[in-house]
Amino acid sequence: MKLSDIRSIGWLNCADGSINLTPCINGSSQPRLINISRQEFNAFGGDLEMMKQKAMEVINSQNFEDSLLLSELEHSEDSYRTIGISNYHLSGADTVVLDDLASDPECNMVLKLDTGWFVKLYESPDANTHASMVYVTKSKFDFKRLSERWLSND
Length: 154
Hints:
The chain has about 150 residues and is α+β, with helices and mostly antiparallel strands.
């Protein structure tokens, strides 16, 4: 990876006092989390280029074969379909419903992104009805219609 592959960078304060650098890499919709010490962060003096350099060094030094995340994915038995929904294509009412679902701690079916949502679907379109999901979603969003449309496009 090159420095120019990082289009922007920010940071998050962690509860343990460390800092998570959050580089956004070209081609990725979500930032990577790079944990560093507060002392190392303070040494950057707010210089974003130095933060990008550190993030690039850490990313380039990681051995992805030993990555815990990849290991978990390789050994997971979970399998489900998702669809990506752009906020450009929805009405204001639908975006409110999806935002509510994404922020509801009881719902694990919707993930909010900057440009839309990922919606997890059950394998059968009939399982994606409001009635079957009401205990999770508490909404009237028509998951069945949505899943029939997307699952039929295999």
